[in-house]
Amino acid sequence: MDFDLSWILLGLPLAFVLGWGASRFDLRQIRLENRNAPKAYFRGLNYLLNEQQDQAIDAFIEAVQNDPDTSELHFALGNLFRRRGEYQRAVRVHEHLLSRGDLSQADRHRAQHALALDFLKAGLLDRAEAALRKLDGTTFETEARLALLANYERSRDWALAAGVAQQLELAGQGDFSLRLAHYLCERSARANSQGEIEQAQQLLLQAIERAPQAARARLELARLLEQQGQLTPAQQTLLQALDQVPTAAPLIAGPLADLSLKLQQTAEPFARMKARYDQTPALDLLDAMVRLAPGNTPLTERELYAGHLERESSLVAATRWIALEKFEHEQFHPQVQRALDHAIQPLLRYRCAACGFEASQHFWQCPGCQTWDSYPARRVEEI
Fold first, then answer.
1. Domain-embedded: residue 94
2. Where are the beta strands (DSSP E) in the chain?
3. Which one, of 215, 221, 219, lies nearest residue 203 by Cα?
4. pTM over 0.85
5. 34 and 148 together in one domain
6. Which end of the chain is more exposed for a tag (fewer CB within 10 A), N or C?
């Protein structure tokens, strides 16, 4: 049977036409897809950069509808909902991601982490804890443990917080000894309030052993001993604290002066405070020394404050000096003193080094940003 070449000659143009048509169809399809999903996606990014979150959410919703299989769009949308405070919608987005069978392991862990953050922001602490626990052994393990730590601190579950802090320390994520000492102090305060004095004291001793360089445990141990009438051991605890934690001397000086006056044993505390003051002058140290000055120094109270003013410019010290000074028009002194006392109040506050939150009392944990040991022992005027 002879082979007819005419069929080949006819078939080649036909195959070319069909191939060209198919390529044109694919290009049109790609262009159509590019016009739909990416256009909405980039529009959403533009809104987000311009801080127009409502419009950005609408654009991302449109993009997700056009391409429901794109996980990145879901993550972007869920994060936007969380930032807007729409936690229920954020939870639904991330739970939808976790329900997908085609999600990669990395994206599944990412979605689990995002879901845990949703619960935390919404204040659903139990559900947040359960979600964070599922991240053990993943790339989000450290972030999850830090979030768990903050969660337990927020709920004041100090025993569980200590367990997580120890895990982080063992994993090489830093030194948590100071924070662990704070947890022991918090547990001690709770035990003390419940009348469990012996347990409270044991917990404070553990805190000192855990972090010898921490001042809080020593201060609270001295307070506990004083509460039990053991004034001399309490005074010795504070004298040891002056040596062990010199940076906290301004916090230690006041309670030490109180105890020393009760015991009528002021010579050694005054000498130790003066030695510390000569190295690093501080207003609270100076005030405590002024109270213990009679019988321990030939200098008067006015001379002690004047000496401080020679070393450092201080409106607080000047106000203290004026309060002790005699003037020609003494009838106006009370009014002037009240005005000065009012003016120095902002200078006597403590300021958080992390967030700048100011308070009239010293905090071991900032009530504003929840950071531990962020309050210096010095007043605002001295910073």
1. yes
2. 350-351, 358-359
3. 221
4. no
5. yes
6. N
Contact 230, 197 (CB under 8 A): no
Asked whether the beta carbons of 222 and 238 are under 8 A apart, the reply is yes
The answer to whether the Cα torsion of 256, 258, 262, 264 is positive or negative is positive
**192 inside domain:** no
| 98 part of a folded domain | yes
Round to whole Å and give the CA distance between 123 and 117.
10
**How many whole angstroms separate alpha carbon 192 and alpha carbon 229?**
15
- The boundaries of the domain holding residue 55 are 25-154
The SS3 of residue 357 is coil
Q: Per-residue pLDDT tens for 59-101?
A: 555 555 555 556 777 777 778 778 878 888 888 878 877 877 7
Whether 102 maps to a domain, the answer reads: yes
Name the domain boundary from 111, 135, 154.
154
Amino acid letter for position 253: A
* 350-374 confidence digits (pLDDT tens): 999 999 999 999 999 999 889 999 9
Give the angle subtended at the CA of 206 by the CAs of 200 and 210, to the nearest 5°: 145
Domain count, the chain: 2
Where is average pLDDT lowest: 35-49, 118-132, 201-215? 35-49
